[in-house]
Amino acid sequence: IKYMKNKLDWRDKKDKLISCDEKLKVLNENFDEIKNVAQNAYDDAILMGCSENDFKSKLILLIREMKFSYK
Question: Is 32 helix (H, G, I), strand (E, B) or coil?
Fold first, then answer.
């Protein structure tokens, strides 16, 4: 993951950089929101005695099983 000024570079299906400011804003805001929710859930899990690796494995599994939901 490449960071530029604390923001990510985003690529389209043809591996070209997305340059639309509004799209970048939405993508980065969504990513930050996911990051915060994941961090809070991770912290809660550790505080409740969960293994760090077990929790991370479950997050990875969640992402791997993700499917596009619009039809």
Answer: helix
- Quick check: 18 and 24 in contact, CB under 8 A? yes
Residue 6's nearest CA partner among 41, 31, 38, 23 is 31
Tokens of 42: 């991770």
- pLDDT for residue 71: 79
Q: What is the mean pLDDT of the chain?
A: 92
Task: Quickly tell me which residue has 């690796």 as its tokens.
Answer: 53
Side chain identity at residue 6, one-letter code: N
Query: Does the structure show a pLDDT above 70 at 56?
Result: yes
Measure the CA–CA gap between 48 and 55, rounded to whole angstroms.
Answer: 11
Q: What does the pLDDT average to over 29-54?
A: 97
